[in-house]
Amino acid sequence: MTLHCDDAAPAGEEISGAILRECQDCGLFQRVAALAEGDVAHCRRCGANLRKAHLNSLNRATWCYIGAFLLLLLAMQLPFLDLRSVGRTYQATIFTGPAQLEGHNMWEISVVVLITLVAVPCVQLMLILSVLLGLRMARPPAFLPRLFSWVAGLRPWSMVEVFLLGAFVAYTRLQAIATVEVGPALYALAGVMLCMVAADVELDHQDVWEAFEAKGMKAQVPPQPQHGYIGCDCCHLVVQARERSRCPRCRSRLLRRKPYSLNRCWAMAGAAVCLYLPANIYPILTLIRFGQGQPSTIIGGVIELAQAQMWPLALLVLMASIVVPLFKLVALFTMLVMTGDGSVTRLRDRTRLYRFVDSIGRWSMIDVFMLTILVALVRLGFVATVLPGIGAIAFAAVVVLTMFAAESFDPRLMWDAASEAGYDLETEGVEAHRAPGPRAQAGVA
User: Radius of gyration (Cα) for the chain, nearest Å?
Assistant: First the structure.
């Protein structure tokens, strides 16, 4: 059941079981009532998901994360693809591709692949398991809230599912060269993906923070009404405190808005634009067969898939590698310009656009992972060899920069800019009209 939150009462943080929350997408303070199993609370101004309730979510998520961690350890030990040609067999593990890329002086891509496929998933799983298992102790360690505060920031950079899609694209291209067999590590990675998806669906992060409080792990800090309300970007606790003080629950810095958000977003989006053309003009790989071959760009790979009648894969690569980065850049610049102008036009739609842009950027890594697999396996000497191209470095940089740009943009600034320009924003339907005078910023809506 979908619930829309009520206006927050300025008298206190928690009234009649309703917890005061700040929407991280539009900045509206509102009360979230106690939810039943499966209920979802949405912001009544922008529609953002504030909380989805799951009963006993900690126990079920713990087992899912344990399964994911064990399968990930298994996947790192076993081959994920075998290639057979002219009587020779080549096996590739997760580490083979990065090692080959480093040998071709492409250490930048090697580092990106190792971070997103191995380091971040391992660290993320270890952190969250440490927290969930630690909460079962009578007196959990005091550092657990700090560990859990890092989990949300790591999630976008864990790309096991993106790697699997890249492996599928590479598998179809390898079949034109030699016989390819799927190894056990690929099945293990598929299990990791399913376990993590199930755990993410089950786990209510607010349950974890409330469990910390139930264990007495929240610092008692007297409210400071003179500083007004401020919401923690990490654990979403709303307190009356001065900016840049420590959150009493997760110990993160309390910031009303992301510092230098627009400047950082402009800088990284601009850098991504500068690299977008080289990423599409220069080749990302060269396939040499029997001493002959020619460099292939991203669009060239799409054309090859289309000529081979692999239309679904051609469309997938086209969308992920060309359309998504371009769409993301156009969307970011649109939001930046309209925020700078204090525009009130389609605020709710722009907020939805930000959420979409923030979630799709990681899928552009498909081509990078596909290249890693091809370089790892196609080492048949005169028969066939795949060499990485300079365009791959530029493309990986575009993906990383656009992800950082979306992460640095604070969507609440769109609503702030419209309000500061003299618009009065209605919470129902988000209709706007010119206020008779400058609108004072309210601590609680």
Answer: 24
Distance (Å, rounded) from C-alpha 76 to C-alpha 365? Answer: 20
Strands 40-42 and 2-4: parallel
In sequence order, what are the beta bridge partners of 3? 41
> What are the E-state strand segments in 228-368?
229-231, 238-240, 285-289, 292-296
- Residues 208 and 234: beta-carbon distance below 8 Å: no
Confirm if 64 and 198 have CB atoms less than 8 A apart.
Answer: yes
Identify residue 271 by its one-letter amino acid code.
Answer: A
| 3-class SS letters over 53-110 | CCCCHHHHHHHHHHHHHHHHHHHCCCCCEEEEECCEEEEECCCHHHHHHHHCCCHHHH
Residue-wise pLDDT for 122-174, tens only, equals: 999 999 999 999 999 888 888 898 899 999 889 999 999 999 999 988 888 88
Task: Give, in degrees to the nearest 5, the angle at Cα 403 between 119 and 232.
Answer: 85
Whole-model pTM over 0.70? yes
Contacts of residue 166, defined as CB under 8 A and 6 or more positions apart, other chains included, come to 365, 366, 367, 368, 369, 370, 372, 373
Report phi then psi at 24, rounded to 5. Answer: -75, -5
> Which residue shows structure tokens 């940089």?
397
- 133 bridge partner residues: none
pLDDT at 14 over 90: no
Provide CB contacts within 8 A for 151, sequence distance 6+: 124, 127, 128, 131
User: If phi over 0 gives left and psi between -120 and 50 gives alpha, with beta otherwise, what is residue 415?
Assistant: alpha
pLDDT in tens, 366-422: 989 998 998 888 876 655 678 888 999 999 999 999 999 999 999 999 998 887 776
3-state secondary structure of 436: coil
Closest CA relative to residue 22, chosen from 38, 8, 40, 12: 8
The Cα 181–Cα 81 span in angstroms is 6
